[in-house]
Design goal:
Strand content: 15-25%
Largest sheet: 7 strands, mixed
Number of helices: 12
Oligomer: single chain
Helix content: 40-55%
Shape: globular
Strand order of the largest sheet: 2-8-7-6-5-3-4
Number of strands: 14
Radius of gyration: 21 Å
Distance between the termini: 43 Å
Bound molecules: pyridoxal-5'-phosphate
Length: about 375
């Protein structure tokens, strides 16, 4: 039986740190000093029961829905767990995309859900094909789970494909959970993001301020669901989160009131780094990867050689980390993140180039060209 914990999260917490960390997927931390929070904005204890009203109101406004559809949670992670627990019961089928963010699968298994998968194919740029969902749906399916933008590839799922998935799910009385934590990367770039929250009552979306805004320490996540499911989630949260840390709720209110400024900084970082990553990918004949367009992670395929060996070489010899694709169910790939400081990305990509060259030389029995990384 699968152990009830996440191999990936343990790796992320203990082995992803490095001088050139291209593994951590969030935008580099937004400094508290620049948020404009005053001591009067904070308090230690407050009226947080089933949501702190000022935060509920701001999250609802951000999502463009009524507050009774919003469940504030400790990060997208807790929001996902609450949705899985509220929308399905032990033994119910959940249909989860593959590859995906492994915690979705681990949490569903821990809840004793019957996890089945539908493919998002590398050769199709990991696009979501609604026909694959239709093929895999069964009458016992209660939930379809996907990420948009896709983690790990950043592939965008357009609203027409989401609608097709929603229709198919509705036909068997299932819901669709769309984890939109990376869709926020489009929002910070001022691009219309098309949240599934507006596509129909069968959709439940989750997201947070953690990734695209550099605010991960606030753990400000949420789910948007129909009001009945939202109240089930609140009641389940009595078992999981119970009461959130009130200072974090207060700071989240301040952050949401200044989100344009926070997003502006994230946009500048992501735009600079997107140019850098795309130039790098275009110059590497040993990698296959679509150019990044609006996302904050890329998922290149290593055309020759072993990804785990590359990751080890990077970490042990070049002070650089990327995420091995095996954690997503795609062992021939690795994940690169674009949210770090531009100089970190530049240094990390230079070292990645060196490590790739070394591997190619080792495979062909010649010595690597002397590059300074
Ligand atoms: C798809 C996806 N959902 C959720 C999370 C966790 O987000 P949070 O930090 O908001 O809990 C991650 C983190 O990498 C993720 O990739």
């Amino acid at each position: 039986m699968t152990p009830p914990f996440s191999e990936y999260m343990e790796w992320a917490k203990t082995r992803s740190a490095a001088r050139f960390n291209l593994a951590s997927s969030g935008v580099v931390a937004f400094p508290l000093a620049e948020l404009g929070a005053r001591i009067e904005d904070l308090e230690i204890c407050g009226p947080s029961t089933y949501g702190y009203a000022p935060l509920q109101e701001r999250l609802a406004r951000k999502a463009g829905v009524d507050p009774d559809r919003v469940v504030h949670a400790t990060g997208t992670s807790m929001a996902n767990l609450l949705v899985l627990a509220a929308a399905a019961e032990p033994g119910d089928v959940v249909l989860i995309e593959e590859p995906t963010y492994s915690l979705l699968v681990d949490a569903a298994r821990w809840l004793r859900l019957d996890v089945r998968r539908f493919p998002r194919r590398a050769e199709e740029g990991f696009r979501l094909d609604p026909r694959e969902v239709e093929r895999a749906l069964t009458p016992g399916t209660r939930l379809v789970v996907l990420t948009n933008l896709h983690n790990p590839s950043s592939a965008f799922v357009p609203p027409e494909d989401l609608r097709a998935v929603g229709e198919a799910a509705r036909s068997v009385d299932a819901r669709v959970l769309v984890d939109e934590v990376y869709l926020e990367a489009l929002a910070v770039r001022g691009r219309p993001s098309g949240s599934a929250a507006h596509l129909g009552p069968e959709f439940v979306v989750t997201s947070s301020l953690t990734k695209a805004y550099g605010l991960s320490g606030l753990r400000c996540g949420w789910a948007v669901a129909d009001p009945d499911l939202a109240s089930r989630m609140w009641r389940l949260d009595d078992l999981f989160g119970v009461i959130p840390a009130h200072p974090a709720e207060r700071l989240s209110v301040v952050a949401l009131d200044h989100l344009d400024r926070v997003a502006g900084r994230a946009r500048r970082i992501l735009e600079t780094n997107t140019d850098g990553v795309n130039a790098f990918l275009a110059a590497r004949p040993d990698l296959a990867c679509a150019p990044v367009d609006g996302g904050m992670i890329a998922f290149p395929r290593l055309l020759r050689g072993d990804v785990d060996a590359l990751c080890r070489r990077l970490r042990e010899g070049h002070e650089t980390t990327v995420v091995p694709g095996r954690f997503f169910g795609a062992p021939g790939h690795f994940r690169l993140a674009l949210g770090c400081a531009p100089e970190t990305l530049e240094g990390g990509l230079a070292r990645l180039a060196t490590a790739l060259d070394e591997m190619r030389s080792a495979a062909s029995g010649t010595s690597a060209p002397a590059t300074d990384a």
